[in-house]
Q: What sequence folds into this?
């Protein structure tokens, strides 16, 4: 395996390949940073360009773009609260408050470092485990996905703030996800006969509206045009910070890799689950959402690790773990290649060249992201009266381009207004996103599990992984709800 | 259920418009293309239908002697938006709708309001063969599978893509023809359904052949029943539905549609252009590369309309009985 990898590195180091790889990283940086332009769209746009290339080069370029977009979504999430990709939503929760405090440089540094570490851990896992883990991931079926989603959702109880708001938010997210034709029965739910709603409400209009648009509205309507900083110094290697986020980084990278490898879910879910677990295990859960460094480290290391992990089932089984990998699978077929069980044997040169390319890409992120980020931070000095409209423009173009739909643009603006109003009452947005992403997984996997078992709930207990996950969820939920009561009782007896 | 406007009225309308416009229309057909053409893809970017449209685009451009073509993906509502935009747009042959069998399955399920009264098929270019796939370690052949299903009614689980998808229709028609009592579990994608068969979580999947070739080669999946009238050369030992006297030969098709009011000479011009593309060496080598050469993909507009109408009746009945 090691000599295969070295052979791959030799291919990557050819001047032309290295040049193409660098350009791919920059294209990915730009696309990822623009709200709405996600990895999926970039890969689709550039797919025809790669037809003329050697398959090895083509897939190095496509996977490099993919890796770079997952990374660079964090830049606009931290600086303007406009997540560049769905994978970076969670990063905005703690990244943007840090920018408001004048700590943009620190936040970006944490983001870059976490992304690169997550990406490198993910790539190593990809290289070592592709042949082994892929088959284990197949044991993960509907009951396990259901249990995982439940585990993620229980964190609503630990989020801090008012529990009732958290529950309303999660329910609201779940409701939004309910809209559209139910894929399991074909029944239309809340579509009111409108074809635009039949496919459901996309994640991008909701995220861009709730976060980016609402923030522009807030700063414009509330005349909050103060510029908190003029000079941003991005420090990537900061020892005290590294000590603070070390545990979070290792835990989140591992969570990211595992979730990425599962064929059914992708990097956005990984970012969410690792954020949830970081909040849950933190000694100060109340600090999250207000600019906690761990709140950036967790989702960024997890989403990059998951992005690499999602390539494991793609290469080993031909099963895409996310939207972008599905497009990459299509690209393989167009090049006359069939990822799947035989692929590791028949095309090992190509695969190891792609692995080596991804390895290099993660170092390029460490190296090149700084000058790139500096460009974006310069924009902070532009008066908000000019910057705000530009952000809105990017949001509109980006959202439109996802499905070529003007309806989605109106939807996004609507969610912008909703986000603005919810902010006024300090509503925990994170719970809406949790409900929106994890809710439909829980719903459809519950129903699928019950069809598998002909209606018997025993299926969740008979299968060891789902039983364990559900038990953990139950214990943690009880603990978070009961602990404060015990503490209060103790205080009372003490006094 | 959408109203199914009889085609003869549309034909009558065209006939009434009559001779005066015919000369004009054939002139237009000679001048085609005189303005930019839009390919609307009734599916998301990166999938089979999208790849089909994007591969055909430069070949079509050559076949009509140069044109400016833009490809637009309209995946919303199983492609219904693409059909709607084609049906409501100008009937001049400059808006082409690239659609799969999902067009007719979603119509039968009442999810797509645009029917064959509003769209005219120009040509069918691909027909991927449907089959029943299992893990060969679990079931040796279809006889073993059938016996198990008969002995355990209601226990067998078969996966496929969403409800009213071509996969689901293949399942329903198999159940309808064979009388076996089995359950369908809809997944988000073919990949997820496949993963569950590989992992032993479900028993089988009904889907098209080409995406699963690598698993077949690796011996992890096997087609045990092929929806075809003749055995396929590559799978001489796998029985067909027709051998069991079940008349199920539908595949997952990819075809091109235009607005139903498009003048006949223009439809004909388009059909000829697509036929030229289909017969080209370049297209055939693409079809071979993506394994869509198991059976004849070409079907002209009239034949394909007949087939779609039959399928619509069958699918509507199957969905109603479910």
A:
């Amino acid at each position: 395996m090691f000599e295969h990898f070295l052979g791959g590195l030799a291919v990557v180091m050819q001047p032309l390949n290295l040049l193409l790889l660098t350009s791919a990283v920059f294209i990915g940086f730009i696309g990822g940073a623009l709200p709405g332009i996600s990895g999926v769209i970039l890969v689709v746009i550039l797919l025809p360009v790669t037809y003329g290339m050697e398959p090895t080069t083509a897939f190095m370029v496509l996977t490099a773009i993919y890796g770079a977009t997952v990374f660079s979504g964090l830049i606009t999430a931290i600086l303007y609260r406009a997540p560049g990709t769905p994978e970076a939503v969670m990063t905005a929760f703690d990244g943007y408050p840090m920018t408001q405090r004048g700590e943009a440089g620190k936040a970006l540094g944490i983001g870059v470092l976490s992304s690169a570490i997550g990406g490198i851990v993910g790539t190593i896992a990809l290289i070592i485990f592709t042949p082994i883990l892929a088959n284990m991931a197949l044991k993960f079926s509907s009951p396990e996905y259901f249990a995982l989603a439940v585990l993620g959702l229980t964190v609503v109880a630990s989020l801090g703030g008012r529990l009732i708001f958290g529950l309303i938010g999660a329910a609201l997210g779940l409701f939004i996800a309910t809209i559209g034709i139910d894929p399991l029965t074909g029944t239309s739910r809340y579509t009111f006969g409108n074809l635009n709603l039949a496919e459901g409400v996309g994640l991008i209009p909701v995220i861009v509206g709730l976060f980016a648009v609402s923030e522009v509205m807030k700063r414009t309507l509330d005349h909050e045009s103060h510029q908190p900083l003029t000079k941003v110094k991005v420090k990537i290697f900061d020892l005290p910070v590294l000590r603070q986020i070390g545990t979070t980084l290792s835990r989140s990278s591992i969570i990211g890799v595992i979730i990425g490898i599962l064929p059914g879910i992708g990097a956005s879910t990984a970012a969410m689950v690792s954020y949830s677990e970081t909040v849950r295990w933190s000694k100060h859960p109340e600090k999250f959402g207000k600019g906690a460094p761990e709140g950036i480290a967790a989702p960024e290391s997890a989403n990059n690790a998951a992005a690499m992990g999602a390539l494991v089932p793609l290469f080993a089984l031909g099963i895409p773990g996310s939207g972008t990998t599905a497009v990459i699978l299509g690209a393989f077929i167009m090049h006359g290649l069939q990822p799947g069980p035989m692929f590791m044997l028949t095309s090992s040169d190509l695969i190891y060249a792609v692995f080596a390319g991804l390895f290099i890409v993660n170092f390029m992120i460490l190296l090149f992201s700084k000058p790139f980020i500096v460009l974006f931070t310069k924009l902070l000095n532009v008066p908000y009266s000019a910057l705000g409209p530009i952000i809105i423009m990017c949001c509109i173009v980006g959202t439109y381009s996802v499905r070529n739909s003007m309806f989605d643009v109106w939807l996004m603006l609507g969610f912008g207004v909703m986000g603005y109003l919810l902010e006024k009452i300090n509503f925990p947005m994170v719970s809406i996103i949790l409900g929106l992403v994890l809710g439909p997984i829980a719903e459809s996997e519950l129903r699928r599990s019950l069809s598998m078992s002909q209606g018997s709930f025993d299926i969740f207990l008979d299968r060891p992984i789902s039983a364990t996950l559900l038990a953990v969820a139950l214990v943690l939920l009880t603990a978070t709800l009961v602990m404060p009561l015990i503490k209060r009782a103790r205080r009372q007896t003490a006094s | 259920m959408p109203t199914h406007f009889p085609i003869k009225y549309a034909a009558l309308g065209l006939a009434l418009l009559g001779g005066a416009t015919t000369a004009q229309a054939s002139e237009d057909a000679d001048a085609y293309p005189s303005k930019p053409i839009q390919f609307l893809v009734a599916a998301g970017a990166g999938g089979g239908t999208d790849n089909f449209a994007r591969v055909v685009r430069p070949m079509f451009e050559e076949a009509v002697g140069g044109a400016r073509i833009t490809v637009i993906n309209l995946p919303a509502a199983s492609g219904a938006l693409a059909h709607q935009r084609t049906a409501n747009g100008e009937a001049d042959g400059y808006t082409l709708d690239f659609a799969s069998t999902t067009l007719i399955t979603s119509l039968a399920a009442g999810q797509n309001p645009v029917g064959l009264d509003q769209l005219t098929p120009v040509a069918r270019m691909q027909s991927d063969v449907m089959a029943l796939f299992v893990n060969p370690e679990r079931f040796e052949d279809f006889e073993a599978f059938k016996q198990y299903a008969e002995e355990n009614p209601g226990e067998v689980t078969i996966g496929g893509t969403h409800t009213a998808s071509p996969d689901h229709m293949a399942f329903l028609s198999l159940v309808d023809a064979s009388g076996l009592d089995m359950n369908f579990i809809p997944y988000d994608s073919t990949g997820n359904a496949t993963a569950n068969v590989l992992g032993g979580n479900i028993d089988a999947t009904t889907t098209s052949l080409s995406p699963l070739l690598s698993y077949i080669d690796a011996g992890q999946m096997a087609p045990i029943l092929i929806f075809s009238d003749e055995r396929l050369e590559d799978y001489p030992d796998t029985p067909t539905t027709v051998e069991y006297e079940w008349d199920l030969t539908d595949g997952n098709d990819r075809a091109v549609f235009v607005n139903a009011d498009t003048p006949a000479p223009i439809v004909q011009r388009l059909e000829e252009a697509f036929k030229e593309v289909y017969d080209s060496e370049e297209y055939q080598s693409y079809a071979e590369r993506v394994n869509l050469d198991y059976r004849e993909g070409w079907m002209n507009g009239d034949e394909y309309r007949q087939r779609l109408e039959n399928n619509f009746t069958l699918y509507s009945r199957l969905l109603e009985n479910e």
Summary: The CA atoms of residues 114 and 278 of chain B lie 27 Å apart.
